[in-house]
Amino acid sequence: MLTYLARRLLLTVPTLFIVTVIVFVMIRLVPGDAVDAMALRLSQQGQEIDLVREEIEAMLGLDVPVLQQYGRWIGVLPDRDGKLNGLLQGNLGGSYWRPYTVNQEISRRLPSTLELGFLALVISQVIALPIGIYSALRQDTFGDYVGRSIAMTFIAVPSFWVATMVIIFPALWWGYMPPVMKKPFFEDPLRHLRAYVVPATVLGMSMSGLTMRMARTMMLEVLRQDYIRTAWAKGLRERVVIVGHALKNALIPVVTAVGLQLPLLIGGTVIIETIFVLPGMGSLIVDSTTTRDYPMLSGAMLFFAFGLIIINILVDLTYAYLDPRIQYE
């Protein structure tokens, strides 16, 4: 197990290198650049764009070739001061617009995104597993049809539409809107959670549809196995057969499905945080894209990529817990 874990961790190095190249190139292919954004702001203040563009490029470090910019960013080439001060030194750079470094801004916003993602993941499983298991146990009954209809509805309806309707209709009908200003947890725990319950529920519902279908399918397959028939023949109670024998084996593909949904969870946080005005990593990505804040956007995307790699490793290790027959070498 330790050998497998060490090998997977070593493989993250070339993976992250490829990610840095893709992120660095792709964000610069977006029409417009940071210099244009800053020059536009200066022109609105009455300054001549032609007079300040070169100065802005020099100030932002964009006056050198792209390869040199990349080398400075990852920390293999010295910066303007002749020092190595990049990714390999643990420094993701400074923001073009904010008074914080990228490291500081990520550490400030990450707890909000983690809380939203964790609550959404828990809510999605609380919805998906009971309905999926019940549909499998009551196959082709009215309850099964209802469960499958719920799953297909959650898959088909986009989360951003549901989030928009959750804000619009209660405001029109009852004059209520979900709270958009959150309090620190230890200052006011109830109000803090209220700011996350609605967006987490919307995000969790959109994730639960696929898990619901997967749980139903795998539970049906496990229930047809010989050892389950033997358990029924021995006269064991339904709860013992389901929980003690079938559920654990049925959960292995479900864990895989949940792991594959995590990138969708990250994409969902970008949309949901923007709609509900939550100060997390998702809204940071949107703001950084709008202002062409290259260091901030690069750091946020790289952090998400690293998180996904670690989560995929944890998902693989979970298989060994659910099925002792799986051994990693």
Describe this structure in words.
The protein is mainly α and 329 residues long. It is globular, with a radius of gyration of 25 Å. The mean pLDDT is 80.
| Strand percent estimate | under 5%
Radius of gyration: 25 Å
Residue-averaged pLDDT: 80
Q: Low-confidence stretches at least 5 residues in length (pLDDT < 50)?
A: none
| Helix percentage | over 70%
Structural class: mainly alpha
Q: How many helical stretches?
A: 12
Largest sheet: none
What best-fitting shape do the alpha-carbon axes yield? globular
Count of individual beta strands? 0
What order do the SSEs take from the amino end to the carboxyl end, as H and E? HHHHHHHHHHHH
First CA to last CA: what distance?
6 Å
What's the quick description here?
The protein is mainly α and 329 residues long.
Keywords for this entry:
12 helices; globular; 329 residues; 75% helix; mainly alpha
Please describe the topology of this protein.
Elements: H1 2-28, H2 34-44, H3 49-60, H4 66-74, H5 102-137, H6 142-156, H7 159-173, H8 189-223, H9 226-233, H10 238-276, H11 281-291, H12 294-322
